[in-house]
Amino acid sequence: MTARQIYVWTHRVLGFTFGGFFALLGISGALLVYRSNVDAFLDPAPYRVSGSTITVGPDAAVAIARRASDNGRLVQLDVPHATGWPGGAVYVADFKHQVGSTLAYVDPHDGRILAQRRGKPAVTSAIKSFHTELLLGGAGKAIVAVLGGAFILTTAGGLLVWPGWRNLRNGLSISRTASAWRIGYDLHKILGITSATFFLVFAATGILLVNKSATRAAFAIKPSRPPRVPAHSADARPLALSGLLAAAHGAFPQSTARSINLPALAHRPVVVYLIGPGDIDQIDGNERVYLDPITGAVLGRVDAMRDPAGFTDIVYALHTCRLWANGLPRAGAVVLGLVPVVLLGLATTTWALRQSARARPKGAPLAH
To answer: What is the DSSP string of 286-351?
Structure first.
């Protein structure tokens, strides 16, 4: 076999063998780009706020939510920080119980309980589980990594056999007078070459995200470990949430708090996640501050844009197209996620039409 035949064989066999998985992972990834919007579409009640101004503070919101949540332990509070998408416009208090958890959605304008839900939204949680582990847990993550490698090889094979390397016009043209299978082939090659770079980025970053610990070890990056909280007296009372958020804002004055996580153990710090104006991820942010829950003292801070420990944050932003939040719209990521479906459809149709043409007796008219 020549080198070109090997490339064609690799592209074709891997594409037809795993193409269905590539398409499903692309569809699930496209849906996750707008996860909050999908949640709001399927269950709009938690996001129906009465106004755009914030008149209810975080402590009042938690007090309201606690009365309606069987007094569970507050583990996380998402605070209103953006009006451009549903998840950024409400308070979401996550209370942990002996069995399961409760999410309480509070209107920041008038303090109403918008909704209560047991656990995270089921549909998008299932989509995420499929996308990251095929609903199979740890074994599924390994399979997703293998599929990512197969996607890279499939894309590389397509790149190597692209006719445009020898004749650019031929590589980007569609022969309108050719047979139907040839038109399908031309569409496949053009769509494939224009999407190939993004495919390689998505697949490579997806593999790196399968096991973040292994990724950090491979790149000799030491993980950021939460600092310990100094000992306090047994009767010491924790600082109000508003005070903790103010302390975090002091560490990053230009940033906006997104959520605050409260520890279960006394020696663990409170963690506040923030979105900075220069963050590549303008949805979840790339900054976090570790605070003493009693005094509000800053024990540590991480800026993924400057700290090597935030390497996987950068990888995640690349994988989800959040790196281009201010340039390439998220809608572009959705389109790219659906391209594997179109490529598989074109490849299957083209192959079937070509086999039909080859089986046709000589002299029979060609399909156009």
So the answer is: SEEEEE-TTT--EEEEEETTT-GGGHHHHHHHHHTTGGGTTSS-HHHHHHHHHHHHHHHHHHHHHH
CA 317 to chain CA mean position, Å = 8
* Contacting residues for 203 by C-beta, under 8 A, at least 6 apart: 148, 149, 151, 152, 155
Contact (CB, 8 A) for 246 and 291: no
- Tokens 């000992």 locate to 231
Give the position of tokens 């914030």. 54
Locus of tokens 């995640």 = 316
DSSP 3-state assignment of 73?
strand
- Around 318, how many Cα atoms within 13 Å sit in the side-chain half-sphere? 19
Written as tens digits, the pLDDT of the chain (368 aa) is: 889 899 999 999 999 999 999 999 999 999 998 888 899 999 999 999 998 889 999 999 999 999 877 778 999 999 998 766 777 899 999 999 888 899 999 999 999 999 999 988 999 999 999 999 999 999 999 999 999 999 999 999 999 999 999 999 889 999 878 888 999 999 999 999 999 999 999 999 999 999 888 888 888 887 777 899 999 998 899 999 999 999 999 999 999 999 999 998 888 999 999 998 888 777 888 899 999 999 999 999 988 877 777 788 888 888 887 765 444 567 788 889 999 999 999 999 999 998 888 876 665 555 44
Give the whole-angstrom CA distance, residue 237 versus residue 59. 14
What are the backbone angles phi and psi of residue 237, rounded to the nearest 5°? -100, 140
Q: How far apart are CA 321 and CA 331, in angstroms?
A: 10
Would you give the DSSP letter of residue 9?
A: H
Among candidate residues 126, 44, 32, 46, the one with its CA nearest the CA of residue 94: 46
| DSSP, residue by residue, 255-294 | -EEEEEE--SSTTSPEEEEEE-TT-S-TTT-SEEEEE-TT
d(C-alpha 305, C-alpha 5), whole Å: 44
Amino acid symbol at 296:
G
